[in-house]
């Protein structure tokens, strides 16, 4: 596996997401959480589907480029939900979260996550749809 047991890089998870932490821990990957606050997560209206979380994951990665050390690999990610042609991102507050859950309840929807792996020398990104 690329990350597990890789002595070349210290893994930096650029997220406070409990699910992302759980995923890395479940894979046996040692990591440190470092989050740059208030990264702008806006995106051009012309982007569709998987382009949106990929764009935002790369944008988050770009915020880390000035501070990445040569021995670090930074993992950034973003997730959106698509339902009835609408893209739903992070809820603005608790009321928005409740509205979103009510909208999704009992309906088929798509969850799209964009992930970006960044070092001082390279950057790779991919998305997954569930």
Automatic annotation (TrEMBL):
InterPro entries (alphabetical): ITPase-like_fam, Maf-like
Chain segments annotated as coiled-coil in the UniProt record: none
Gene3D superfamilies documented for this protein: 3.90.950.10
UniProt GO MF annotations: nucleoside triphosphate diphosphatase activity
Cofactor or coenzyme needed: a divalent metal cation
Entry keywords, A to Z: Hydrolase
Name of this chain's protein: Septum formation protein Maf
């Amino acid at each position: 596996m690329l990350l597990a047991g890789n002595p070349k890089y210290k893994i930096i998870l650029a997220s406070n997401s409990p699910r992302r932490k759980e995923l890395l821990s479940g894979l046996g990957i040692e990591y440190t959480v470092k989050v740059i606050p208030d990264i702008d997560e806006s995106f051009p209206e012309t982007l569709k589907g998987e382009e949106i979380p990929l764009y935002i994951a790369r944008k988050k990665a770009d915020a880390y480029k000035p501070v990445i050390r040569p021995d670090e690999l930074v993992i950034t990610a973003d997730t959106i939900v698509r339902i009835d042609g609408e893209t739903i991102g992070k809820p603005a507050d608790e009321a928005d979260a409740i509205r979103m859950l009510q909208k999704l309840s009992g309906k088929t929807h798509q969850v799209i996550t964009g992930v970006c792996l960044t070092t001082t020398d390279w950057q790779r990104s991919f998305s997954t749809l569930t």
